[in-house]
Amino acid sequence: MFMEWETVIGLEIHTQLATKSKIFSGASTTYGAEPNTQACAVDLGLPGVLPVLNAEVVRMAVMLGLATHSTVAPRSVFARKNYFYPDLPKGYQISQFELPIVHDGYLDIELEDGTIKRIGITRAHLEEDAGKSLHEDYHGMTGIDLNRAGTPLLEIVSEPDLRSAQEAVAYMKKMHALVRYLGISDGNMQEGSFRCDANVSVRPKGQAEFGTRAELKNINSFRFVEQAINYEVERQIMRIEGGGSVVQETRLYDPNKGETRPMRSKEEANDYRYFPDPDLLPVEIDAAFIETVRATLPELPDAKKARFVEQYGLSEYDAGVLTAAREMADYFEAVVAAADGQGKLAANWVTGELSGALNRADLDITASPVSAAALGVLLQRINDGTLSGKLAKQVFEAMWNGVGSADAVIEQQGLKQISDSTAIEGIIDEVLARSAKQVEQYRGGQEKLFGYFVGQVMKATQGKANPQQVNDLLKQKLDKS
Amino acid sequence: MALDANAVAKIAHLARLGINPEDVPEYARNLSAILAFVEQLNAVDTTGVIPLAHPLDATQRLRPDAVTETNDRDNFQSVAPQTEDGLYLVPQVIE
């Protein structure tokens, strides 16, 4: 019997907050330092130390709360989550349990068909990261680096509102853009600054109760979240249709094999015995502080997108592409400023030629060899008629390869568009003089030959003649008998 | 609420405490007595009382986000049983 299944997904996103020091100690959070050189007595959990909360993590959590229309808790409490693992020296992780700092908000995502879907945010809580275990090369022992221990994390937990891997990716991307817009995280997924766990279950379409879920751990790329969920959904459906049932368990995604598998663990799962951490007092946040933070919120992706459509006359699609990342939006606006306000032209070039070149070179917008100011000048040369679109692409390529500024390339390669009508007329006359037969045929009614004349003129000018002028002048000359 | 021998063994395992099996009945009796003592609190009407997160009537002080700790690895690792390449070495945790 064929049955239609519905996928239910909730995401827990761990985002590392971009502070200088750790959440409870004054040790540095800089990535990539020599092992254990940034792990102080507090991070090591030595006896007699006292954690003191970093003011910046509170401000950042409030920012995320405001940006996701959430309630910022006037009083939140840190709790100990107890479990044993060598990279967790205290034997517990300081987290928040019953009273998180942020709760009950939402984030709107755009689905592939353009509709907007609201995804509930259950809560966001502050916690410390654990260290790293290195399982290789230590003659049968495990090496522990505690530099990451105590790094501030904000765990953002969604409602089970997502209904497909694509929706999960859209939500994750939107949240990724948001934390970067807010400047509260660098969002670097390779370095683990932004990673997620996915709770995945399936149920027959129309059924109200949720199916049994599996938790997929530590997914650190947009591609993997989609692959892991799709694999897991398929696995669960096959299991149920084969007469079995889904077991509630934690599974790891293996990107090399493209599959999820149960975590090998003899640990008593989820028996964390949370209790309020007696080393830390309740965190109180008053309305005045929240308003101070609200005043510093930057323009957020949705607002920026609407403004781009309004102010520059861009399509929804282009505005969406340009505002997906703050750096891209900033680059675009810098181009517009340098190109005398040519918003649409700038959008075409940034999403087209520039993005294509960046993709091919696997570069981020911030690493573009062509600066926004330089691209702006190129667009000015299109706008003032110096360059045709085709020549502009040639100039862009030279700029990309480091030849020089737009003006320097135009000068050096003699690419200036010919817009002098006397010069163009002279060339047209030459072409017509040596094409007497074609002129006769054209005038005899073979109007398709017009393209031939345009081609000849362009060839004679190495593509530099202003195409509009060539068209106009050719028409004049051919049509006068 | 009373704890049986299984519960005691489980708690000991979660806390990574090695206990002698012959001591388990004694622990179960003592821990159950402690729980029974605390259970008297259930007789108090706590309607409208905000759960106490900390015995002190104070709120968390915050520190400015500044790096104040310098590298003291050699000192810390001087008391570690085994280190290599700057790492603390521990018995293998995965098979």
What does this protein look like?
The complex is a heterodimer of chains A (481) and B (95). By secondary structure, chain A is an alpha+beta fold. Chain A has three domains: 5-293, no CATH class; 301-412, no CATH class; 421-479, Orthogonal Bundle (Arc Repressor Mutant, subunit A). Chain A has helices at residues 41-44, 55-67, 165-182, 222-241, 287-294, 301-312, 316-323, 326-338, 343-361, 372-383, 389-400, 406-412, 421-433, 436-443, 450-460, 467-479; strands spanning 5-16, 53-54, 71-72, 75-76, 78-82, 92-96, 102-110, 116-128, 132-138, 141-145, 152-158, 194-204, 214-219, 249-254, 259-262, 275-276, 283-284. The radius of gyration of chain A is 30 Å and the shape is elongated. The mean pLDDT of chain A is 91. Chain B has a domain at 1-44: Glu-tRNAGln amidotransferase C subunit, N-terminal domain (Histone, subunit A, Orthogonal Bundle), CATH 1.10.20. Helix content of chain B is 32%, strand content 9%. Chain B has helices at residues 5-14, 24-38, 73-77; strands at 62-63, 83-84, 87-91. In chain B, strands 2-3 form a two-stranded antiparallel sheet. The longest helix of chain B is centred in the N-terminal third of the chain and has 15 residues, at 24-38. The radius of gyration of chain B is 22 Å and the shape is flat. The interface between A and B is large, with 54 and 38 residues.
